[in-house]
Design a protein that fits this description.
With 227 residues, the chain is mainly alpha-helical. The protein is built from nine helices and two strands, in the order αααββαααααα. A hairpin with a 5-residue loop joins β1 and β2.
Length: 227
């Protein structure tokens, strides 16, 4: 089967099946967390200042920052969707290397840093705090449950990293001015929001293919436990 077709079928299957998992919508905000973190890190690397980040129950988010205009604005606007797509690849890389436990600790650490440094709105702080507690509980529940939870987060991250740009594309077609990062990029370049949305979606699909290739790859045997 063609790898691109197989990737799309897996994504559609994941989008359908994860809807039946209780509270899956709540966990999808993790993708928003990574998206906004990407904006924040890019801002700091480009000598800007992050004022605050908001995470909302409808899976939207906003990063408020101060940054010099010009190419830096373009780089920061690009960083959100790119970060989310690359993060999904890293999740499946961790799965391939049997580093699920370490991965959950890294995700928890990211959530803690977001709480301490950036997120200021009530819902965002509440979500991050509960997410850290739940993730650490699963970490200590044992290898099998921990790994299942990690794989759930990996597939949710993968799905959302593609669905985000796809939704952006629909906005770029119907209401270009509301197309988030694509609209921001259109405002500072001569390239319309529709083209930026298509580029985000193409990159997300490419990363999804890489992530699923890691998932399909034969994993190394688990190390035997010492007695």
């Amino acid at each position: 089967m063609n790898k691109w077709l197989k990737t799309i079928l897996y994504l559609v299957g994941a989008a359908v099946l994860t809807r039946f998992i209780p509270f899956s919508s709540w966990f999808r905000i993790m993708d928003t967390m990574i998206h906004e973190l990407g904006h924040a890190v890019a801002t700091l690397l480009l000598s800007g200042r992050v004022l605050s980040i908001e995470l909302n129950p409808d899976h939207s988010g906003t990063t408020y920052s101060v940054l010099a205009s010009g190419w830096r604005t373009i780089a920061v606007s690009l960083s959100g969707y790119i970060s989310a797509s690359l993060f999904s690849v890293l999740m499946f890389y961790g799965y391939t290397k049997r580093k699920q436990g370490e991965g959950l600790l890294v995700i928890s650490g990211i959530a803690v840093l977001m709480t301490l440094l950036f997120v200021r709105n009530g819902y965002g702080v509440w979500w991050l705090s509960i997410f850290v507690v739940i993730t650490l509980v699963f970490y200590f529940l044992g290898t099998r449950i921990r790994n299942a939870y990690f794989l759930l987060l990996a597939f949710l991250s993968l799905e959302e990293s593609v669905m985000g740009p796809f939704s952006l594309l629909l906005y770029a077609i119907r209401q270009p001015s509301r197309a988030g990062d694509a609209a921001n990029l259109a405002n500072v370049t001569i390239v319309p929001a529709l083209i930026w949305a298509l580029l985000f979606l193409a990159f997300a699909l490419w990363c999804a293919k890489l992530a699923l290739q890691l998932f399909w790859r034969k994993r190394p045997a688990a190390k035997p436990r010492s007695q």
